[in-house]
Protein: Replication-associated recombination protein A
Organism: Ideonella margarita
Amino acid sequence: MNRQDALFDLAGPGGQADGSPPDDTPAPSNTHAPLAERLRPRHIDEVIGQAHLLGAGKPLRTAFEAGRLHSMILWGPPGVGKTTLARLVAGAVEARLIVLSAVLAGVKDIRDAVVEAEALRASGRRTIVFVDEVHRFNKSQQDAFLPHVESGLFTFIGATTENPSFEVNSALLSRATVHVLKALDLAEMQALLARAAETLQAPPMTESASLRLIAYADGDARRLLNAYDNLLAQSSGLAQLDEQALERSLGEQLRRYDKGGDHFYDSISALHKSVRGSDPDGALYWLARMLDGGADPRYIVRRVVRMASEEVGNADPRALRIALDAAETYERLGSPEGELALAQAVAYIAVAPKSNAVYKAWNEVRAFVKQDGSRPVPMHLRNAPTKLMKGLGFGQAYRYSHDEPNAFSAGQTYLPDGMPPVQFYAPVPRGLELRIADKLAELQRLNAEAAAAAGDTGSLGQLPGDEPGANQA
């Protein structure tokens, strides 16, 4: 029978309704088992993380305390406690837990579990069937659970790292409550590491080494504990565990997956500079290096979107749209299929004409506004929704550009009265901004002609760029 650990009898007669095993059940003593298994919580209060499910008054805490059993899907990344929660649920309701691995099991194993559950029911025992990686079961295998979940023969618990909306049959999904588990955060990972160190009476670990190990684990408790166990095994006799010991222990794994360290930020810097330098080969190389090293593709997606805006801007506005399309495609397909769209966006942005004109203009505007006073809005630009406001002159003399020749109200100003002349946005002579620059030059000419015709250039203020000391972007 292809069952993972075949059968767990965690809560036979005398089991605890709070989620712990019977009092006479000894704690695991197999020192050869992985550290993650040796430290697996045996009581709900020992669980680190998932406070949104296990905190006071939260769904699973309430179920534990009341001893109520319901079918559920536990959805979350690896190493966050899905199997542990299934075991604790079984202990809380005094049920026998049958564990199936969807990687190894088939329909025959499901039938065997059904036979076992029927025998247990005849003896007055309840059964939970836990399916690890349930998304790997096909439709017919998932359908095999339905009649028995419906009849109440056993309670079904499925664990998955994939979105159950797409990977679990709707019929089975409708009969189960989906609980979303979260990756452990920094504080939770630190607490777990401290528990492991105390349990094993390990030597102290430097803060930099512990933070680097936690970054390597990336919210995965199992990965953290296994790496820590390996570190201890290879650091016998050391009075302190530092980064050098960690690098010797994890080797290339740590150097490649240095999510929070210099290598990670150096790599994203190299990617960004390759794009800025219009080198698609370099950009694709660093993209591949980051993905191969375990960087979160969603982080890279965000950086690529920024590159499209910061480095290309209005020289080719399509770059931003392509970057956003790549982000959407990746969300739909995930890895590895979605990575091709990301590579497509990186290559396009790299070869696109470059302009940081808007980036520079925006930074300059923000700096100007921060140090400048709060200038009032000119009267002709103010909104005038009421008769009183119109009577006060709000909106008076405003010219509606669509009613003007070429939809441009030449000579009309849009900056606060008395503000010094500025030119924040200065298009570069590349790509679409060549045409934008020509357009702005023509509008500036029309403004100058309007001012001359009015015979009062002072009322318009000096035109941007006419004064040697004008604020150029």
The chain is about 50% helix and 10% strand. The first strand starts at residue 3 and ends at 8. Strands lie at 3-8, 72-75, 95-101, 126-132, 155-160, 177-180, 422-423, 471-472.
